[in-house]
Design brief:
This protein is of the alpha/beta class. The chain is built from ten helices and eight strands. The protein has one domain: TIM Barrel. The two termini are 14 Å apart.
Length: 257
């Protein structure tokens, strides 16, 4: 049984004290065959690409930007680097991008988020790359914008929206990524029960969203906790969940595994 972590932050995990080589070793021990690193700042991009080039079968990359900081960051530079690395086939997707209403409360800044989000959707459409969506406290609006604009594969990262919004995602064939925090967070558990396995992938969002209450540092090897919890919640075999979520990840991101 093999798993793939579809969303993590390698540079943040390293800063928290876990070296890359240990991350890879732990993944090997847990049969996590690959993980997708999602750097969100320009100064993280180059190292993420280098890690992929040095470990082309284990580490893949999507390039993103934190939506809560759209108004502070050089959007054109982000777009340009995403185009550059897509052209050299060093990335497998765009993201995380999207909306963040948790940190951004002012309506003018939220409207700005909507406009910039659409630029990233158009970029992913044009590049024919999947797009990974951050939608904290803005799930319904993010889905509305995606319905109108997305013409590529959509993955809702660490999705914690309502059952109704989750069903909207299902209707649109958007994939839902269930994080390791499904072990202890009701919102994620509710979503995992609601969405069919055919539209699920798993992630750690490491170093965040640890599945263990007494251990704050998360890592890609822990993605197996999400797989096992989904199996319990859906009354399925672990083998079935491993197989389908891994198959989904490979197909979405066209991973050469």
């Amino acid at each position: 049984m093999q798993a793939i972590d579809t969303h993590c932050h390698v540079s943040h995990t390293i800063k928290k004290g876990l070296p890359l080589e240990k991350m890879l070793k732990h993944c090997q021990e847990e049969k996590v065959i690959a993980f997708i690193d999602s750097p969100v700042y320009l100064d993280e991009y180059k190292q993420a690409i280098k890690n992929h080039q040095e470990h082309p079968k284990e580490i893949f990359v999507t390039l993103g930007i934190p939506p809560a900081r759209y108004h502070e960051l050089p959007i054109e530079e982000y777009l340009e680097l995403m185009r550059k690395y897509a052209k050299t086939e060093d990335i497998v997707g765009i993201g995380e991008v999207g909306l963040d209403y948790y940190w951004v409360k002012k309506e003018p800044l939220r409207q700005k988020q909507h406009e910039i989000f659409q630029q990233f959707i158009e970029l992913a459409n044009g590049l024919k790359l999947p797009i990974t969506i951050h939608s904290r406290d803005a799930e319904a609006k993010a889905v509305e914008i995606l319905e109108e604009n997305a013409r590529t594969t959509v993955v809702m990262h660490s999705f914690a929206g309502t059952v109704e919004t989750a069903q909207k995602c299902v209707e649109n064939q958007f994939y839902i990524s269930i994080p390791t925090a499904v072990t202890n967070r009701k919102k994620h558990r509710r979503v995992a029960r609601t969405v069919p396995l055919e539209l699920l992938v798993v992630e750690t969002d490491s170093p965040y969203l640890s599945p263990l209450k007494n251990r704050r540092l998360n890592e890609p090897a822990n993605v197996t906790y999400a797989v096992k919890e989904i199996a319990k919640l859906k009354d399925l075999s672990e083998e079935e969940v491993y197989e389908q979520t891994t198959k989904n990840a490979i197909e979405i991101f066209k991973l050469p595994i």
